[in-house]
Amino acid sequence: MPEQKPKQADWVVLVILAILGAFYLLAPHNVHVSSGIGLDLDHSVHTIAGVILLLVAAGYYASKTGLLKKQ
To answer: Of 30, 33, 44, 49, which residue is most buried, by most CB within 10 angstroms?
Structure first.
């Protein structure tokens, strides 16, 4: 796949994934629950979900910018 510049839609996806990831990783558990998007999960699951979302955002960015291309 040739290297390509991320489009505006790509940036929207990246920002949403990064914000959700940071929210689940860093916010206190009572904030998750009271926000309505706590999904009735334990705080440790929120933390793991946050890490996964941030990794997905990083991988998505790397794939769109060609950082993961084979040498």
So the answer is: 49
